User: Fold this.
Amino acid sequence: MTPPPTTRRRFLRAAGTLSVAAVAGCLSDSSDGSDGEEMPTATGVGDKIPYDVGVQHDLTAWNQYDSDWAAPKTAPEPGSYEAEILAENLEIPWDIAFAPNGELFVTERTGRVVTVEQNGYKTVSEPESVVDAEALPPGSEEDSWYVEGGEGGLLGIAVHPNYPDVPLVYTYFTTKSDDERINRVAAFDTSSDDSWTIVDNIPGDSYHNGGRLTFGPENYLWVTAGDGDPALDNPEAIADPGTLGGKILRLEPDGAAPQDNPDIGPDADPRVFTYGHRNPQGVAWFPDGTPIIAEHGPGGGDEVNVLRPGGNYGWPKARNSDGFESYKGTDYQRPVASASSWAPSGCLFYTGDSIPSLQGRLIVAGLISQQLIAFTITRDGSRLTTDHEHRHAADWMDNDYHAASTPLLSDELGRIRHVEQGPDGGLYATTSNRDGRAGDGFPTERDDKLVRIRPN
Assistant:
């Protein structure tokens, strides 16, 4: 479908058609988003937010909770899927978030928050403090790996679990502080112009910004922070749990460190859940609440990792790629799957009914591989049948989990940035074909797209 003209927030406020309309001016020119007050710390900013942002942390109340889940016994059907276009000509859509009331929010890396409706999408906000980022025109034949803005910009988005009663939307974005790129997480009040910085000074660069943001099954806010140091100028900081670069953070909705976060040592930042990551861009959970991430590796060595609280995942020393120490013989946490050519981004563990053959699998968006990858992961390796295209069974991998993978929709959508399960049980995805890196006929005149995957 062709999107309607951009709709400014003054229209949205007057018409009241979108409850997100008042995310106006959310990323202002203020350097810290807190009106000159103290910068946020691990103690959170709950005293500054005029809502009760507290949530219950009851895993068993999660609607996908299943302590006895088991992996499927066979591989998914590789060629049995098609994509229904819901919105097109988006500018590098990066993340998707469904609110509890069903509203759908999408971030564009170039700096817009949009909502998607039946007749297309509408611009909600065009934040001013996001670093400059460009998108190639639809149908462009330009092959420009380094488009303006690199990989930074407006990235992750999450909605407070009690929305709209607590009308907060969270975003992760790249900005500048004292002429240095940093990444920031901020919460925005959709009923006013107010915003609060939740996490600040996550290391940033043109590349390796991480950026996924989501509320997990126990209503903690999870943040995937890239190392922000693609040249490895300061490798000690990446491996240091006292810093925020190359980490998975677990937070209360006001940014405070949960009391049951792992104790990694007296000098560790209490918001850090795991460390030693390179550029993680996807986080999901098994039905028993165990977290899983997908992260980019150096020159290959892309990984899927099952997270253990307080675990060190080896970067910048260990990776399964040339020039780096192997995992074998180390105490680093090891991947459950690894490959040289996925470029994995967003992911989810699919539990919906809309696509039965994908139920019970980890679905990962692939960028350079231009595909979805369906992972069957189990504690019992004998369940992984030979009809999977790949079995990840090297002796240096995770001993507790076993994985096999099958590619889906190869080169049909181009670069796939994120996948998300909707409240209808559907599987939704965004493409990233206007970032200068697509091949094999992309971007098309309809790129970039938000699609719904369904069986054909």
User: Anything to note?
Assistant: The helical segments are 9-15, 235-238.
